[in-house]
Amino acid sequence: MKINVITCADHVSPESVKGNTAVVVDTLRATSVIITAISHGAKSVVPMTSVEEALETKKKLENVVLGGERKARLIDGFDLSNSPKEYTASAVAEKNVVLTTTNGTKAIARSSSAARIFIGALRNARAVAEAAVAEERDAVIVNAGTGGEFSMDDFITAGAIIAHMLELKPAELTDVAKTALIIYETHRDLRSYIQEAHHYGVLEELGLSEDLDFCLQESVEDIVPEYKNGIIKQHF
Ligand code: MLT
């Protein structure tokens, strides 16, 4: 098994993920939100890359909750922002969550030619590592990044997932995957590294420190959502 890392959504091409198990990561905050929504009983999460698409999709589905962000804030007319703490069981159980975010939902859409697509974050790092190893094929950790740029929060999350994969099975790592692993292994106080990330500062400025605390918890969820045929459900 070979493991690679792609450092932002804009760098994903069909060839770069084809035949691989892709694990899409947007720790602050899109994939943390998706894991929380599925964990709290959402029927599905439907990732959209534009607000217009999300509003169109709402017309075609039942029991819809509109969620997401632009500039890290609630979108006009939407029910929920991209704060994981809003995705409670009372808000999303049995609902179809139509979600659009700036980077995370784009990274998911761009990974669609992979053999299988799992949703990863720090919160389910060990569980998603187990699912990726069980697939017995090459894997690629797709970082959403921020605005087409590398993001430190997603990169150290890739390192965490790779560390858990190596606990289960030896693998060949590309240089960027090795670097993510080294960053993770040399920053066990994750916040000491992630607090330097641009987007961490943006969320802190907006007073969203509870979201930061929530998204930085490691391997506290056994949920492994899977993206298939345009929707995300729990992977079994
Ligand atoms: C994104 O997809 O860009 C992020 O999840 C944005 C955020 O939650 O602030």
Q: How do the helices and strands line up, and which of them pair or pack?
A:
Elements: E1 2-6, H1 14-17, E2 21-25, H2 30-39, E3 44-48, H3 51-60, E4 64-68, H4 89-92, E5 96-100, H5 104-110, E6 116-120, H6 125-134, E7 139-143, H7 152-168, E8 172-173, H8 175-185, H9 190-194, H10 198-205, H11 209-215, E9 225-228, E10 231-234
Parallel strand pairs: 1-7, 1-8, 2-6, 2-7, 3-5, 4-5
Antiparallel strand pairs: 6-9, 9-10
Keywords: Hydrolase, Magnesium
Catalytic activity: (2R)-O-phospho-3-sulfolactate + H2O = (2R)-3-sulfolactate + phosphate
EC number: 3.1.3.71
Question: How would you explain this protein's 3D organization?
Answer:
The structure is a single chain. The chain is of the alpha/beta class and 236 residues long. The chain has a domain at 2-35 and 103-228: putative 2-phosphosulfolactate phosphatase (Alpha-Beta Complex), CATH 3.90.1560.10. The chain contains eleven helices and ten strands. It has helices at residues 14-17, 30-39, 51-60, 89-92, 104-110, 125-134, 152-168, 175-185, 190-194, 198-205, 209-215; strands spanning 2-6, 21-25, 44-48, 64-68, 96-100, 116-120, 139-143, 172-173, 225-228, 231-234. The strands form two sheets. It has a seven-stranded mixed sheet with strand order 8-1-7-2-6-9-10, sandwiched between helices. A three-stranded parallel sheet has the order 3-5-4, sandwiched between helices. Residues 26, 28-30, 69, 72, 82, 101-104, 144 line the site of D-malate (MLT).
